[in-house]
Amino acid sequence: MMVHLFVCQGRDEIPRWREAFPQARLVSPQQARAWTSRGDRVWVMSNLENWPALVSGLSGRGAILTVLSYAPNSLEAFQALNAGARGYAHALSPVALLRQVEVVITNQGIWVWPELLARVVGGTFKALGGESRLQEETLALLTGRERAVALAVAEGHSNKEVARRLDITERTVKAHLGAVFRKLGIRDRMQLILRLSHQDASLSEPGR
């Protein structure tokens, strides 16, 4: 039977964790190593000593890991993902968001906050050659405004930044981006840049 384990120091109990997952257990790193089984959802606090090794070890057992932080930052997020975590979020995230993270990672997705995801996407697009490697036949499927939105997103801009850049609303950006995804048969930003760069879109993880 799958369980939720929150691995933390004694003073880290957050009431909303139990509100999100009423059957959750708060455990020490030692207890997590002893009790974790394949398929368990394990949430690890990043203020624990040597937490990346703990995440790596539990991930190797088949557990599904999320790292929680009081001060999320890009470097720590990359450490978490490199160690085998599928999620990275604020320790004080609202109940609804914690449940959303759990849904995403359960369905083989990766969850990080949107701003970090945008930076990751932009860095990947540049690493793959950026606009010099654009596939014009792919862009030809899009309207002019959809193309502008797609390119801005691929460069690593958030929806808010794209809206400001193109002088449109965030709602309009989301609508155009949804149309881009449908036309290209993709589901996320990472797949968008892989498609634009003529890479195998199956390499992308389904995430936000």
The percentage helix is: 40-55%
Mean pLDDT score, rounded?
86
Trace the largest sheet across and list its strands.
2-1-3-4-5
Distance between the termini: 27 Å
Low-confidence segments, given as residue ranges, are 200-208
How many beta-strand runs?
5
Number of helices: 11
Order of helices and strands: EHEHEHEHEHHHHHHH
C-alpha Rg (nearest Å): 19 Å
Structural category is alpha/beta
Q: In this structure, how is the largest beta sheet organized?
A: 5 strands, parallel
Protein name: Response regulator transcription factor
Domain HTH luxR-type: 135-200
InterPro entries: Sig_transdc_resp-reg_C-effctor (IPR016032), Tscrpt_reg_LuxR_C (IPR000792), WH-like_DNA-bd_sf (IPR036388)
Organism: Halomonas flagellata
SSE layout and pairing:
Elements: E1 4-7, H1 15-20, E2 25-27, H2 29-35, E3 41-45, H3 51-60, E4 64-69, H4 74-83, E5 87-90, H5 95-106, H6 114-127, H7 136-139, H8 144-154, H9 159-166, H10 170-184, H11 189-196
Parallel strand pairs: 1-2, 1-3, 3-4, 4-5
Describe this structure in words.
This protein has helices at 15-20, 29-35, 51-60, 74-83, 95-106, 114-127, 136-139, 144-154, 159-166, 170-184, 189-196, and strands spanning 4-7, 25-27, 41-45, 64-69, 87-90. It is α/β, with parallel strands linked by helices and 208 residues long. The radius of gyration is 19 Å and the shape is elongated. Strands 2-1-3-4-5 form a five-stranded parallel sheet, with helices on both faces.
